[in-house]
Every structure is written in structure tokens, then in C-alpha cells.
Design brief:
The structure is a homodimer. Chain A has about 160 residues and is mostly helical. The first copy, chain A, contains five helices and no strands. In chain A, helix 2 runs antiparallel to helix 3 (about 60-75). At the A-B interface, helix 2 and helix 3 of A face helix 2 and helix 3 of B.
Amino acid sequence: MTSTSKILATTALALGAIAAAWAQQAPKPEQLIKWRQSAYQVLGWNTARIKANLEGSYNKDEVIRAANTIAAISNSGLGSLFAPGTETGKGWHDTTAKPALFTDTKKVGEAAAALSKEAGELVRVANAGDAAAVKTQFAALQRTCKGCHDDFRTAN
Amino acid sequence: MTSTSKILATTALALGAIAAAWAQQAPKPEQLIKWRQSAYQVLGWNTARIKANLEGSYNKDEVIRAANTIAAISNSGLGSLFAPGTETGKGWHDTTAKPALFTDTKKVGEAAAALSKEAGELVRVANAGDAAAVKTQFAALQRTCKGCHDDFRTAN
């Protein structure tokens, strides 16, 4: 074996080991879809809580906790859960993502930024504690949810 | 009908309406179990991300986002998802909660407080950006996860 071929062989082995480690580490599409479906469920839980507070007895602390959770998930980097290979498939259930979610990156980016902005504003308003202001800002947040669902989620 | 019986009848109707509204609004056990299973999945996602960062290339911003999400969910009031009526049943899958989770309120409270404390500390350390310190604090967080799983979750 020449020095060059030894180096090449060693490099190939090293690259193989890295690829194997990555394949082992990278979550499978089913796992990514489960995680994203779970993240939206947690958004749904916290949205339902804020709604219940606005329609019933208002508990400032609970609304703050719910708003913080919505904001953290909105800023968590959900985009990584829509990796190539997850366009179709099943997590807890068949994905409801439309094909455009994986191709219209500009519009998806704008929708993600809008969600993040309105969720952050909801945290600010929730901490101030004025239920009427929370109601207004919660409606603004829900418009970003609905807009994205209309564009990128199939009816289910 | 006497005045008294009229008042009683009206009160009964009003109470019936309130009970009906509450029954409509209160999420069903299956929904609560789905939400809590989802919340733990999101914790799992973000735990996996931090682990991948510590074992591979460290991205400070991603670790901060993951830590923020873990902390927000830890402080979100997960206890409300273990409401009476959810001791058994199916969300995405059969619940893996042990009966003790619904009865040993003191120990559960301590476990929840420990999770919240260690997650908050992880956010602080992640923002400072020292990967070695994050590794140490992440291990502390994982001990609270494991402790609670050992005590209150059936093997699955």
C-alpha cells in the first residue's frame, strides 16, 4: 500500500465512522413527525388554557405560564422537525403538512417569524396582566396560527 | 308553583347550565393524556438536541432554544394534565403513569420543583455558553428526569 492509498483508506474509514455515527444519532422521520405533532399539541393545550381564562375566571399566573410555553415552542426551531424525508409519513398519525410547507421557504419563514413575534408580544402583555389586552393580543396570535394552517396544513 | 319552588327550579336550571358549559369546556381525559404525552415528547426532543450538541458540534443558540423550551414546559403547570379521571386511559398510547403519581402529592411536588429548578439553571448556564458547564448542569437535569421516571412511570 502506498502512503497515498493508506491515507485514502484511513480517510474513507473515518468518514464511514462519522456517517455511521450520524445515521445512529439522526432521528428517524417518524420520530421527527411525532415530535412536531407533539409540539403543536402543546401549543394547542396552552392556547386552550388561555381561551378558558379569557372566557371564564382569569388567572394571571396561568396565562403567563401558558404564554411562556407558547413563546418558547415558537422560538424552539420547529423548522428542524420538517427535515427532508418528513414530507409524508406517520408520527402519532399521518402528517397533515402540505407539500408547500417544504418548498415555499420564504412564506414559511415569514409565518414562523410572525408566530414568534406575536407570541413574544403575548408574553409581554400577559405579564402586564390586563385581561382585555391579552384578549386582543391572543386574537393576533391566533390569526398567525390560522394563516399558517390555511396555507400549510391539510384539513384533518 | 310557590315562590320558593320557582326560585329552586330557576337555580337548578342555572346550575345545570353551568355544569353543561363546564362539561363542554373541560377537556376530556383522553385529551389531557394526549397533551401530557405530547409535553414529555417535546421535553424528549429538546433533551435529545442538547445531548447531540454536547456530543457533536456545539451550537450555543440551539442549546439556549432547547433549554428555554424545557424550562417553559417544566414551569407550564403539567400537574393540571394529571387531573382526576386520567389515572388510566389512552392518549396517543396507554398512559405510563403509575398510580402513585396521583396519590403521593408531596413527592410529586418535590420532583416537579426539582425539575423546574434544574431546568432554570440550565437556561442560565446555556446563556453563559460554556459547554462544559452545560454538560454538568444537563446531567443534573437528567437526574431529576430519571428520578421521577423511576418513581412514577411504568417501563414502556
